[in-house]
User: Fold these one by one.
Assistant:
Number 1:
Amino acid sequence: MRFEAKDFKSKKIIKDLKDAASKSTKVYIATDPDREGEVIGWHLYEILKIVNSKIVRVSYQEITERAVKNAISNPRSLNDDLIGAGLARSCLDKLVGFKGSPLVWNLGAKSIGRVQSAVCHLVCNREREIINFKPVDYFSVFVEYSQGFKSFYSHGGLDSIIKEKSDELQSESVRIYQHQEAKTLVELAKRSPHRIVQVNRKTIHKNPSPPFITSSLQQESGSKLGLSPDQTMKVAQSLYEKGLITYMRTDSVALSEEFCHAARKWLENKDSQNIPTNQTKHRINKNSQEAHEAIRPSNLNYPSSQLKSQISESEFSLYLLIWKRAIASQCRPALIDKTTILSQSGSVFWQAKGQMVNFLGYARYWNNLSADSQLPDLKQEQSLGLSKAEIEFKTTSPPSRYGEPQLVARGNAS
């Protein structure tokens, strides 16, 4: 196959590569370790084989001395399956969006490919939901006790309350759509004595999140650092090229044994209480290609004070995000004490939920836990003093339009 440069800059690059290859005993192609990288490597092979037939392919997940030397010591041929997959994907991009592409030409865009088509579909569906949304008014009824906590109306008998499985903290009662019904509940609460009918206490284990893949890195970088997906990938590319993180285009949560051992060693020295009994394994998505590792730091022990002076602020912030998520993924679960208090006034039941973090575990590095909400130490059949019984008027809201991080999350879930 014949490849031709389309502009002066490309022609100069090709000329320089040919000149360098003609003076070399062997050419190593070390493009990105994915399908697109393999296709680029194939293009280079077709161009350079004219001046040097000794061309081999090497690949690595991190640009470190160990990884690069190991790759050069174990060269391989170009992978025809990856090349075919990359070319097929490029073809699919064009075929899926070819009907829609003319719509964006006047906007300066070249085409609508398979990803843009799906994104357009998601955005349009969300816009229809917003346009067709009809707000609904409802009421939330709650009581406050002199013992220092708030309880929400809970519909149904005691059995149905006990069977409830949700561990989320409450912000409203069961929805009531008639104002008169809400007023009746408040009146019942005010004229009837209140007592505790059940106190449920349990400790739950909350496992750490897996290390970053491309989509989750884009989401968290957007919410925590305010970077767009495109900005995130540019900063991550820079970190990769500087040898600070592994390859940043991946859908795998797998970590190398070498890194897991290094993480355990780091925890032994810095946070021995956070070492899990067994090495943490994260559930692999059945649709994951598993071609690469998750995104992680190349060296856990790089001094942060030194690194901060060597790279930009955005690079350091993203690096720190990746470092924390990676080390957290190898820590013990967090232990959370959850309490549910069920009270009764007449025939009406009220429910309060609280939680306290007993052991931070992984959340010492990656805190995604809800804030503590402590309930008083109360006992079954204890009488309660009513301080307040009120109605809160609320209205349902339409779904919000997608921001870039939310769109990435939605697309990944689909």
Note: The beta strands are 27-29, 55-57, 137-145, 149-154, 194-206, 334-345, 348-359, 383-384, 386-395.
Number 2:
Amino acid sequence: MDAFGEGTKRRLWMGLLEWERQATSGNASQSVIRLYDEPDANLHYEAQRQLFANISEMAAEPDSRTQCFVCTHSVTLVNNAPSRAISLIRTEGDGGRSLDRISGPEDEEVVQFFGEIGRAVGLSNTVLLQERGFLVVEGESEADAVPKIYRKLYGRSMREDGLILVNLHTCSAWKSVLEMLLKNRLAMTHMLLDADCRDPESSARISAEAFEELGCEPEFETQQVSYIGEKEFEDAFTNEIIVRALNEKFPREDETVWAEKQIDSMRNFRDKFSDNLKMVVRQQCVRGLRSSVSKPSLAAAIVGQCQSESDVPRAIVDAFDSLRERAGVSDD
């Protein structure tokens, strides 16, 4: 055995573990507690997945009388485990220890569904336990543009500062995801929402009523929610910024320049400005660019023209300020 590397030794050990599980399955006459101290060390990704499968299958067998405890730093093991089965032990400044756990919906189907959909919106067990702050948005434009604005303002990415952007726009289980986030990281969460979600006739899913249903106190909306635009994210930017973006990225087919009065004419707030903007630009820009005109591509072009904080809508800056303060992020 001494001739083998540590990874090979671990894989041999895994083989013995699987053999033992199969040999003793259903035959245990007494309850067994198994303790694993960093069993993932020196194992590659696929081997860690197999290790997790072996341990979880051993504990989940109908006739099993085995309970398993795993001490690990493996992201693979932690993210594959059920959220409610994880405990994070932290070392405090005074040398003491604290225990942190993830809580969430009790219904088993909802828990399983969240495990599948959570990763699609940027949430996982390790993210919930380790990251410093969460910014929730509800649109593709925001999801694409907000991280770019953050980097321009602070010279670092949101990820580098431990801040996670969660886009609920395409998530059918948005309420379960939001419930999980607010139950576990309420104090570390800020939301950036289109202003029209407060309209009683709006089709927006997130509203004051939704916050109440999720158990949020009234001060959550006043302190941890920023509303942007007359109606939406796109209409919060100035005509000047938008004109510069269109002339650079989506020049007109007739070779004239986009003008601010044209942008102003699209601000008919009975309709969505973003819909009007997309329709007009797609009709009038250079023909070869028309298929690329979308809300995210227009938002990216607009953000590309924001060179300083004064170019950025106040609601976005306020959301960043609130989130960074909550997360303990400084400019140093």
Note: The mean pLDDT is 84.
